[in-house]
Specification:
With 237 residues, the protein is α/β, with parallel strands linked by helices. The chain has 8 helices and 5 strands, in the order αααβββαβαβααα.
């Protein structure tokens, strides 16, 4: 969905209804059938399969449009992986938050190894609101020291960045994983890697808004957040 296209062209429902449903699903631990009933209660009859297609169509686009409006994160990285079930198999969601619990970045990977960790670090450093870290706190995963040393040699990481493999210091990101688990649970797993990734991007994007990471919007102002999402898609409030 390119920026030059009309994102809601050809849809049976209005942009307001679609964005309303997308925000609700990505923000609260509900299933598509739950959301179908909630919308019906508001006088909107839409099938749960249509709601699924809306999430797949708009979650990634929402992140793309929101990213330029994020506040800078700090140089204290807390990095960890959590498990997500896709088509009956476990895959790995790499996640990083800063010392304040603000989301830095995330990446879904089929593997948990040095190559996957390196790709995650490279992706994270490419974000415009991300600074080169002063400290990187991780668990005892043996891949991290190798990746950090390699990226320092290649001058991708600041050479004075300190790697800390201290489990208890990573509680902040481990606690943040629980939010993802709560959102994933009603869906009873994902059917494909692609649908998992697109949905997880939406979960993380709405979480960044709720954490107050969007400039000029507080994390508890739901009305302002809804208006902001509508404005991102050029939809009148």
């Amino acid at each position: 969905m390119g920026s030059g296209k009309k994102p809601f062209k050809g849809r049976q429902f209005t942009a307001e209804v679609i964005l309303w449903a997308v925000r609700w699903y990505l923000q609260f631990p509900i299933s598509y059938r739950d959301l179908e009933l909630m919308l019906r209660d508001r006088g909107v009859s839409v099938d749960h399969t249509t709601l699924f297609r809306w999430i797949q169509a708009y979650a990634v686009e929402l992140e793309r449009r929101l990213r330029p409006h994020l506040r800078p994160t700090t140089g204290s990285w807390r990095v960890d992986e959590t498990y997500i079930k896709v088509k009956g198999r476990w895959v790995y969601l790499y996640r990083a938050v800063d010392g304040r619990g603000q989301t830095i970045d995330f990446r879904l990977s089929a593997r948990r190894d040095a190559a996957a960790a390196k790709r995650f670090f490279q992706k994270t450093l490419a974000r415009p609101n991300t600074v080169n870290p002063r400290t990187i706190t991780v668990d005892k995963n043996a891949a991290y020291p190798k990746v950090v040393a390699d990226m320092k040699r290649n001058r991708r990481l600041w050479r004075f960045a300190k790697l800390r493999q201290v489990q208890y210091l990573n509680n902040i990101v481990e606690q943040d994983h629980r939010r993802i688990k709560r959102l994933v649970r009603p869906g009873l797993g994902f059917k494909s890697f692609r649908t998992a990734w697109r949905t997880l991007v939406g979960y993380e994007t709405l979480a960044m808004m709720r954490k107050g990471q969007v400039k000029a919007i507080t994390g508890d102002d739901i009305v302002a957040q809804a208006a902001f999402v509508n404005a991102l898609f050029d939809v009148a409030a």
